[in-house]
Amino acid sequence: MTGRGAAIALGAPGIALAFVFGVLGVASLSGDHSPVLAPQSRSLAEAAGNHDAAEVVRRLVAGEDLRSAADVRMPLKLAGPARLTPLEAAVLSEWTPMLQLLIDAGAPTDTATLRPLRCIAQRERDRNTIAFLAALDEQRTLTCDGVVLPGSVRIYR
Amino acid sequence: MLPKRLRPTTPVLCAWGLTALFALGVSAAIYHIPIQVSDSLEVIETVSRASSVRTAFVDALYSSRSMLRPLRQAQTKLLTELGPDNGVAYTRALRGFHALTAAVLFLLFTAVVRPRTWNDLAPLAFALTVLTGLHTSAGMFREAYPVNHFLLISIYCVATFALARSRGGLASDVVAVVCFALAAHTLESGLVILPLAVAGYLAGLRGISVRGLSAMVTVTAGYFLLRIGYLDMVGTEIGERPTGYWLWSLDSSSVQAIFGTHTYLLAGYTVVSSVVTVLLSQPVNGTWTVIRAALDGRLVAADIIPVVSSLLTTGLIAWHVFSRDAHGHRRTRDPLLLAGVTVLVGTAAISYAYAKSEIMSAAGVFYALLVCDSARSLTNRRGLPALAIAVVVIASSLWTLRAMGLMYQLERSAFAARNEWAHDERYELGTHTSTPLESSLKREALQRTRTNPLLLTPALGTLWGEP
User: Fold this and answer.
1) Closest of A90, A81, A97 to residue A120, by C-alpha
2) How many CB atoms lie within 10 A of CB B287?
3) Which residues contact B105 (CB under 8 A, 6 or more apart)?
4) Measured on CA atoms in the order B349, B355, B360, B364, is the torsion positive or negative?
5) Residue A55's pLDDT band (boundaries 50, 70, 90)?
6) pTM of full prediction above 0.90
7) What pLDDT sits at residue A33?
8) Do residues B83 and B90 make contact, with C-beta atoms less than 8 angstroms apart?
9) Sign of the CA dihedral running B69, B74, B80, B83
10) Could you say which of A58, A87, B321, B376 has the lowest number of CB atoms within 10 Å?
């Protein structure tokens, strides 16, 4: 094998990477984000389910509805998209600051809304979310019989 | 039309094109990271109250007992003076400057490599992946400070080496002294430029003359006179900041409990670990994360790839250094090697108080330059065995994976910095408070959409260090 073989083995990945960097750079300058490495949150619910507090704030300011459900991708939790409200997505993400953010912004906290949320939290067995929601609910005792939880949810763990 | 001898050849144009692509990708991603709240907003608020760049400089002299970094604030003030007092202008000036300096580092890197022939292209491409993939480089590109001082120090160091290798003259001496003065007053590790210039001289480089070196020594004397004689400053105390030690991260009380009055032992460990981290990508911030992960039974590819790739490139450098050149001489007195070792050891010594990967970023840049030189030797050799080629394929593939990880980390930083504005305790939803500038910066950070790395396939995130 000659030095040319070593040169190709050594340089080819870097040269290919340079072109990827160039494409990413042009895409990034022409838009606001990389189109390859990570997609953007497509809805308020999806942002709420993926720790994207800033995007939640931006969409709220733009007037998006806190109650409307959307197809939500949560690769860290779900095998495929599921139809969720922002609150449901936030409970599923097990991140109480997001729940607080949504509630501060006017998300409903009546017993009828909280019951399915608490049932999701029970299923996820996340102590923080369970305690956070229980503290909000006037109906302290919880029964999840007959509560329909978001249907296509498949949990990885 | 340029005379023929000055016209760039096709390989040279390709090399600079390659560099431009790397610079474009990294700089564009850097530009889209919003100004971060932590470690940044306070500085911006401070300089916005200063009446001039000079006032910002003078105020900074008295802002700390252990850190003398007046040019950080002066430069921040200078940048904020570029536009009107609003978030859009501040973001453009500060983020634009960061992106620009990143591009300058890439260009300087290739200028030092001096590609001339087709044989130089592959080593350069490989070295650029090492530069972008090395963990010590991440902080230079990722941290959206008003002025990223780690990046500036790397630029000053590489520029000084380029000057040392130039034909020299008065201009070269003046620029080298200015580089040194700027670096020393930007960050403590900037002081390493003096030994770097001396090392170059001892290795036979005459681009910076004895006159230039003398001027640098005078600047050093002035620096210490200002620091100790006038400002009565002290060094950073060991234990003042958290640092890693073997498998643990220690805070102040743990340092006291473990070392008592013998903190020099921790300082010694920190210096050695700072050297080793550049060569092996471990320990990270003083902690042997790969061993801890193995002991906890949760070792993943993200732990192994950096160590294996660094072992291969460090091995390549060692092979290059201890093999003989075309004249039969060993390369142990090679100027780039001496400069690299000086920056490595010098910066590690300055960071005695706590280990932090970013502090070693300039040493990481020289490591990548040494990789380039070593790779050149490799590709110039004929008759390499198939096993050697296989190792080269593994090394270049792993470093490419690490370099791609930088782009992911930059996306992650943009996501995190933007979310800091939505969730920082002082900046709750809907309360644009305190000053019009803060409100404006917050609006600017929030209104521009960013990608969400959590929506990426988890396997990729894990590959690049996500838990």
Assistant:
1) A90
2) 20
3) B140, B151, B154, B155, B158, B365
4) positive
5) very high
6) yes
7) 63
8) yes
9) negative
10) B321
For residues B9 and B151, give the distance between their C-alpha atoms in angstroms, rounded to a whole number: 31
Nearest to B393 among A9, A29, A56 (CB): A9
Which of A11-15, A150-154, B336-340, B366-370 has the weakest average pLDDT? A150-154
DSSP designation for B354: -
The reply to whether residue A55 touches residue B452, judged by beta carbons under 8 angstroms, is yes
Chain B: give the shortest CA distance to residue A58, in Å.
6
What's chain A's Rg over C-alpha atoms?
21
DSSP state, residue B85: S
Select the residue of A7, A13, A33 nearest B450 (Cβ to Cβ). A33
- Best of A17, A66, A94 to substitute, by most chain B Cβ atoms within 10 angstroms, is A17
Token digits of residue B272: 């050695």
> Three-state SS across B402-456?
HHHHHHHHHHHHHHHHHHHHHHCCCCCCCCCCCCHHHHHHHHHHHHCCCCCHHHC
Element (H, E) at B172: helix B170-184
Structure tokens at B194: 């003096």
Lookup: tokens for B284:
């990270």
Give tens-digit pLDDT for A86-140: 999 999 999 999 999 999 889 999 999 999 999 999 988 899 999 999 999 887 7
Mutate to test the interface with A, among B33, B384, B396, B424 (most CBs of A within 10 A): B396
- Dihedral sign computed on CA atoms, order A90, A93, A98, A100: positive
Cβ pair B451:A12 closer than 8 A: no
Q: Residue A45 has which token pair?
A: 């619910």
H helices of B32-86, in order, are: 41-49, 53-61, 70-80
Express each pLDDT in B69-115 by its tens digit: 999 999 999 998 887 777 788 889 999 999 999 999 999 999 999 99
Q: Is the pLDDT of residue B365 over 80?
A: yes
pLDDT bin (cut points 50, 70, 90) of residue B154 is: very high
| Bridge-based pairing state of the strands A82-84 and B243-245 | unpaired
Q: Is the ipTM of this complex over 0.95?
A: no
B104 CA: distance to closest CA in chain A (Å): 16
Query: Which residues on neighbouring strands pair with residue A155, listed in sequence order?
Result: A78
| Sign of torsion over alpha carbons B222, B364, A24, B409 | negative
- Report residue B167: phi and psi, to 5°: -75, -15
A108 — contact with chain B (CB < 8 Å)? no
Residue A83, chain B, CB below 8 Å: the answer is no
Q: CA–CA separation, B1 vs B403, rounded Å?
A: 38
* Closest CA–CA distance from residue B126 to any residue of chain A (Å): 5
Residue of A nearest to B404 (CA): A17
What pLDDT is stored for residue B447 in this prediction?
Answer: 83
How far does CA A42 lie from the centroid of its chain?
Answer: 10
SS (H, E, C) A110-136: CHHHHHHHHHHHHHHCCHHHHHHHHHH
Hey, of B409, B449, B460, B462, which one would you mutate to test binding to chain A, going by the most A CBs within 10 A of its CB? B449
Do the chains contact at A3 and B419, CB–CB below 8 Å? no
CA distances from residue B247 to B62, B68, B255, B293, B353 in whole angstroms, order as listed: 37, 31, 14, 10, 18
